[in-house]
Amino acid sequence: xxxxxxxxxxxxxxxxxxxxxxxxxxxxxxxxxxxxxxxxxxxxxxxxxxxxxxxxxxxxxxxxxxxxxxxxxxxxxxxxxxxxxxxxxxxxxxxxxxxxxxxxxxxxxxxxxxxxxxxxxxxxxxxxxxxxxxxxxxxxxxxxxxxxxxxxxxxxxxxxxxxxxxxxxxxxxxxxxxxxxxxxxxxxxxxxxxxxxxxxxxxxxxxxxxxxxxxxxxxxxxxxxxxxxxxxxxxxxxxxxxxxxxxxxxxxxxxxxxxxxxxxxxxxxxxxxxxxxxxxxxxxxxxxxxxxxxxxxxxxxxxxxxxxxxxxxxxxxxxxxxxxxxxxxxxxxx
Amino acid sequence: xxxxxxxxxxxxxxxxxxxxxxxxxxxxxxxxxxxxxxxxxxxxxxxxxxxxxxxxxxxxxxxxxxxxxxxxxxxxxxxxxxxxxxxxxxxxxxxxxxxxxxxxxxxxxxxxxxxxxxxxxxxxxxxxxxxxxxxxxxxxxxxxxxxxxxxxxxxxxxxxxxxxxxxxxxxxxxxxxxxxxxxxxxxxxxxxxxxxxxxxxxxxxxxxxxxxxxxxxxxxxxxxxxxxxxxxxxxxxxxxxxxxxxxxxxxxxxxxxxxxxxxxxxxxxxxxxxxxxxxxxxxxxxxxxx
Lengths: 334, 290
Hints:
The complex is a heterodimer of chains A (334) and B (290).
Chain A: E1 5-19, E2 25-40, E3 45-49, H1 56-63, E4 71-76, H2 85-89, E5 92-96, H3 108-118, H4 123-137, H5 152-164, E6 170-174, H6 182-198, E7 202-206, H7 210-216, E8 219-224, E9 227-232, H8 234-240, E10 245-251, H9 259-265, E11 273-278, E12 284-289, H10 295-305, E13 308-314, H11 318-331
Parallel strand pairs in A: 3-7, 3-8, 5-6, 6-7
Antiparallel strand pairs in A: 1-2, 1-4, 8-9, 10-12, 10-13, 11-12
Helix pairs in contact in A: 5-6
Chain B: H1 2-20, H2 24-43, H3 46-73, E1 76-77, E2 80-81, H4 82-103, H5 109-115, H6 117-122, H7 128-135, H8 142-158, H9 165-191, H10 202-214, H11 223-232, H12 240-247, H13 263-283
Antiparallel strand pairs in B: 1-2
Helix pairs in contact in B: 2-7, 3-4, 3-8, 4-8, 4-9, 9-10, 9-13
């Protein structure tokens, strides 16, 4: 099967001029994207992450024909994005979290109707796709509202619908959940998951929210300073950088005075589980779990020797993982 | 796999689209729709629409009043009587209004770049320039064009044009060619924003400045200005030379009497140059932030 997105040695340089003295300015070339190789197969769901300024958006903009690459090659759906921009536009959908495809002063449904003409979608196809999005995203309640009056969550649901009405083969999403409340985030994730599950749409999304990735993407590409520093599954990333989930339990009464006593009371800790913090009153315990360690077994074990008042499992933070990954890179360990 | 199916659907719709594009109407359909939506959106701010429409017409009237006031002081301007100069002003004013209605909003390009909206336009399957024009066309300025046509009619009556097929062709084509030249200047100066986002009012110097320049007979300007603006940027061919040709008057500056017809090739040349500058600009687009 041929790849739907292929980038080889893709680069984008920007010249920035900086003040140096009262009138003098120094021009400097900065590589925002510095030689990226990426092959994405049809139907894949790829999370593209990295710290701010790593080059995520720039890569997406080169793949969608917005920016002209400074070097290397990129093809999407077999087309060269800038040279064949309008042809490519029919095959891809793009959601920029901070930009809008909608008409600000018109009701949401007018924007959908306009986009039907912009993409020349047959009326029946358009209606079918819109009906599907309408029920999955609950558009009914605000379809008649002018876009400028929509909440961010409502607008984002509108944006995603707008990007899908022409049945694109690839959907690019640049921070689709940024600034959304929990309910809206879940609605957006659930919908994208159902789009992805059908397998006929390739999904590439950038995000800062690990939950987006966990819910949606089997594959994770981490970029930093314009380079790909990880390309694999989320589990592989955690394994590689030993990121650990944390399990925090609150007990009704302490089960031991120090780490040793508690570990002994629990009958020893399983492989990959460490007891990291014990609160001064001995009622709150924090465990670290390496990837693969069984949180259920740990909780059951604690519950068998003490009565639990509260329990939480804290996922490793993406920024934390990326930050660690970056530190390793600058320290020279691949 | 599924992807083959989706690709086939895309191929089929594309094929249908290209077939549909055979007729001209189909090709312009999306832009028409966008334009109509833009009018609807503008009408949702009703008061503002009418204030703009009325103030726009006042501005056009003021241009002509300036010429009237000048002739209160002097009876001859650069060797031309009031009615001849008024005729030139009327042509210039109509040309500018026409260009301003259609592409004047391109001045907003720097704001569209700054806000990131240009990214959204670039991911649509439409050409960028017609999109920019249709999303922001200032239909409220249409009144100025109608006013311009009426004033040109009055001016043509004042100068007692000798009507012939040639005169008719020229009085219709001249404002169109003039508008095309102004439009080219609007586009070229707006393009600067691709390199220089803080371009501010840079473009106005050439667009509004050009309009003011063409309002008077070229004979009033010194040689330097004539060379740079009248000939170099082609402003003399918007109103001055076509007016001379229609009036059957010899050019005090020495060009032959058919020079008025040069407005058409000059406008075409300017549009070609604008197209080239525009495409270069889009390739240098840097986008903003995330």
